[in-house]
């Protein structure tokens, strides 16, 4: 059959001898039916990828919202990086302190699954790219809604994945703060995702129930299949296997940053931050070094004092005085928004609720504003909720794994709180202000 739109001999067709397959049409424009000739494309191939993304992207959205809630942004302005969120913060709740590995799990899933989904996302976009060039661009009100949701979906997905990947590599280069861009981008993307899912999910399920993976649903036209496909070089099952293999490779080379052992050494795609500290009690990951935020050895020297404020007034304590107080221990990890985590480290120091009692809150301590001596970088100040202060495992840590903290790990004193994001475990603490936040 010849071309139905332009006719044989049109400048947008090739002569029969050029194709070797009869009077087949191969368009020169992306909007031409014969431009996209891969035999792999088809509604079944796209439906399989779409259902994988439906589960994966929903998980990413939920864990992303949980990560945002873990910062307790509704507690104090110092924690809130998206002050104009309005109704988008409707779901926020007091982040719990247990289980102590909660943030390690939720953010580890968010980052690791996000990286592993990259091949699936790219394959899905490749599978539907002919739809972006269909003419006329709008045929009806329903079609217009589908097209708008598709553009927002594609643009939003690319924006979220690109900004997220740049952030976890600690090489974020977009203008403005990562937090509001990623947060608002996620809501725009997910709104388009819901609209597109509502339009396409019934068809995807119907297509997958229709028979073999290689074919289309009985009696239903496959609008994604090429009208004049090229000779196949890979089957659709092979393409799905290749996509899955790419996801598995990315999983292996990223998941290890949440664990110790051999997997950590092959985690090439998640951030390494500063050089590994090496063996010993302080030999676990550091991203924010003292030098990077302007903290010097003099800042942590003999003149360092911790100021504790509350109804009892201001109390200044040296490190020696803190060490003379009752010491408590807790085994807790550090988990960061970039997706890496340490195993449980053995921390020792003064409980925050004991310092609250010293400040004038002996019974039910309130939240606390924590200030660091660091001179640059985000979260120089951070607020903790009352439930975090009251947890007996929440410490002003002075030692780790049986030795004094190193300067890069926050010497002379740092916060460690169960289930809190790493940036709220403030290092180089100089002031604690206990008050209702």
Structure notes:
It comes from Streptomyces atratus. This is Oxidoreductase molybdopterin binding domain-containing protein. Residues 1-21 are annotated as: Disordered. With 437 residues, the protein is an alpha+beta fold. It has two domains: 43-258, no CATH class; 291-434, Oxidoreductase, molybdopterin-binding domain (Sulfite Oxidase, Chain A, domain 2), CATH 3.90.420.10. It is built from eleven helices and ten strands. It has helices at 16-19, 43-70, 102-116, 118-128, 141-168, 178-208, 236-255, 262-265, 319-324, 352-359, 386-390; strands spanning 306-310, 313-317, 328-332, 345-351, 368-372, 381-384, 395-400, 403-404, 414-416, 429-434. Strands 2-1-10-5-6 form a five-stranded mixed β-sheet. Helix 2 runs antiparallel to helix 3 (102-116) and helix 4 (118-128) packs antiparallel against helix 7. The longest helix is centred in the middle third of the chain and has 31 residues, at 178-208. The chain is elongated and about 80 Å long.
């Amino acid at each position: 059959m010849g071309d139905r739109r332009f006719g044989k001999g049109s400048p947008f067709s090739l002569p029969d001898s050029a194709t070797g397959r009869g009077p087949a049409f191969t368009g020169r424009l992306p909007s031409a039916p014969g431009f996209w000739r891969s035999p792999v494309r088809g509604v079944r191939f796209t439906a399989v990828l779409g259902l994988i993304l439906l589960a994966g992207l929903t998980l990413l959205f939920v864990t992303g919202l949980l990560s945002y809630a873990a910062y307790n942004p509704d507690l104090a302005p110092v924690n809130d990086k998206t002050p104009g969120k309005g109704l988008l913060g409707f779901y926020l709740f007091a982040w719990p302190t247990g289980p102590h590995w909660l943030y390690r799990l939720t953010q580890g899933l968010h980052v690791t699954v996000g990286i592993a989904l990259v091949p699936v996302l790219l394959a899905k976009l490749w599978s539907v790219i002919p739809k972006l060039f269909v003419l006329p661009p709008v045929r009806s009100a329903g079609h217009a809604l589908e097209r708008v949701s598709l553009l927002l979906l594609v643009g939003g997905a690319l924006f979220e994945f690109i900004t997220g990947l740049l952030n976890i590599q600690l090489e974020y280069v977009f203008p403005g703060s990562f937090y509001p861009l990623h947060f608002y981008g996620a809501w725009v993307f997910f709104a388009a995702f819901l609209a597109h899912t509502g339009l396409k999910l019934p068809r995807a399920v119907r297509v997958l129930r229709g028979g073999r993976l290689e074919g289309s649903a009985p009696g239903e036209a496959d609008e994604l299949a090429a009208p004049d496909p090229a000779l196949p070089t890979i089957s659709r099952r092979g393409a799905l296997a290749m996509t899955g293999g790419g996801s598995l490779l990315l999983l292996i080379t990223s998941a290890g940053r949440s664990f110790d052992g051999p997997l950590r050494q092959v985690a090439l795609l998640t951030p390494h931050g500063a050089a590994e500290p090496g063996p010993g009690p302080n030999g676990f990951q550091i991203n924010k070094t003292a030098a990077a935020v302007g903290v010097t050895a003099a800042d942590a020297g003999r003149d360092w004092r911790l100021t504790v404020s509350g109804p009892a007034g201001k109390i200044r304590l040296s490190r020696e005085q803190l060490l003379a107080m009752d010491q408590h221990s807790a085994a807790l990890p550090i988990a960061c928004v970039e997706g890496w985590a340490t195993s449980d480290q053995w921390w020792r120091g003064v409980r925050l609720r004991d310092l609250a009692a010293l400040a004038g809150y002996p019974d039910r301590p309130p939240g606390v504003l924590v200030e660091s001596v660091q001179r640059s970088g985000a979260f120089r100040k951070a607020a903790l909720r009352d439930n975090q202060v009251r947890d007996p495992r929440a410490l002003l840590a002075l030692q780790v794994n049986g030795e004094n903290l190193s300067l890069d790990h926050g010497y002379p004193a740092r916060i460690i709180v169960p289930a809190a994001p790493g940036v709220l475990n403030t290092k180089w603490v100089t002031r604690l202000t206990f008050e209702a936040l």
